[in-house]
Design a protein that fits this description.
Length: 78
């Protein structure tokens, strides 16, 4: 029997992908504002699967979190 696998799901609310250095490679996002340095996330990401094309099915973020965790639509009119 295969050993149990671990899953770590990190969800950062209202956090833009281009502000994490694993995605923007340390480039400036906004003129005059230094790029965010995220060495711990970068180190962890090198050992993980990175999803680059993930789109939420709606806004605000609270219902989207519910949908991701349950697989069910949170609002009936969708």
């Amino acid at each position: 029997m295969a050993p149990a696998q671990n899953l770590i799901f990190i969800m950062l609310d209202s956090f833009r992908q281009d502000h994490v250095s694993i995605y923007n490679h340390g480039e400036v996002v906004f003129t005059g504002i230094p790029p965010c340095q995220t060495p711990n996330i970068d180190k962890f990401a090198k050992e993980c699967i990175i999803f680059e094309n993930v789109y939420p099915c709606g806004l605000p973020t609270m219902p989207v979190r519910y949908e991701l965790m349950t697989g069910q639509f949170s609002l009936p009119f969708r």
